[in-house]
Amino acid sequence: MQRGLDSETKKQLEEEEKKIISEEHWYLDLPELKEKESFIIEEQSFLLCEDLLYGRMSFRGFNPEVEKLMLQMNAKHKAEEVEDETVELDVSDEEMARRYETLVGTIGKKFARKRDHANYEEDENGDITPIKAKKMFLKPQD
Amino acid sequence: MAEPASVAAESLAGSRARAARTVLGQVVLPGEELLLPEQEDAEGPGGAVERPLSLNARACSRVRVVCGPGLRRCGDRLLVTKCGRLRHKEPGSGSGGGVYWVDSQQKRYVPVKGDHVIGIVTAKSGDIFKVDVGGSEPASLSYLSFEGATKRNRPNVGDLIYGQFVVANKDMEPEMVCIDSCGRANGMGVIGQDGLLFKVTLGLIRKLLAPDCEIIQEVGKLYPLEIVFGMNGRIWVKAKTIQQTLILANILEACEHMTSDQRKQIFSRLAES
């Protein structure tokens, strides 16, 4: 004895229910409107219109930070590159090179084995300069 | 009395819209409609002017035009909403059309997104400060929108703030911040001690901030000083002594109505003393 409905009748019932529900949905009965592309954009800001300078200003060294900012912001705005680089070096290039030379030796000594310590000689000044020639395997010439 | 008014109204209503190009630099009144360059040919006197044949394949595509302050979009035309001179700026690179705007004068500031303004902190409420910027409502400024914001590092009620608007439209309360999109201050935040804050018209601020402004260049040669301009018509100045500060404030207020000769006289007198 079958209780319930057949699968077919079930399907039919479902479809009918769906139809009823979708027909009850509201929709606008208007013809299709083509959206007009607007070529005019509205902006209320003066920033686009006029090239205005940055609002904070300082003259004759009253506020050095603001003067630096002035250069930065106005240069960004005009997209000009600052030609004269007035970057003051704390340490000159030559001194840097000298330090690096000895630095390589000091660090290298840290990782060298006992046998290699002989390679690192000490200068008169106490600077450690590594000897460049290391003992490599020399292929015997026939 | 009614006759001349009605005649004027008729003439205004009956006149055809003028081409924006022909009106550049002239005074325009609210209610006028302006035609953009592409529409001029279509509206020209019937039959008299031959339309130039354009062999350009993309003749139908129009250039995007930006209508700035004082103008509104009205269909395909521009509608003037403020009285002043019509200005135009050519596009710098690429996207065409340029910007049209009306150079008008007013004292009352309306918050605009992106503007840098000077505000006065009036109240603390919850997580935000209420800042008076001269608009219809006080703007809100969050505790966290400062570079390096901490519990100790906060403005107090009565401080001056230099910040920019992040939200500013007619439907919502304006919101301002003191950092840029990368999180850096870029000169915004609490403005230092001392100094003098005074109010001028909005047009003067724009005139003083123009790239080739002579007034600022001359002022900068007088003595060491610091100035902050807010687009809401407020200027803050500071110099070493009170007298110098006051002189500076008077110059900036008065220079709006002086001719360049009078200004040069005053500056030369100051330089002598």
From TrEMBL, chain A:
Pfam families cross-referenced by the UniProt entry: MPP6
Domain of life of the native organism: Eukaryota
Record protein name field: M-phase phosphoprotein 6
Organism of derivation: Homo sapiens
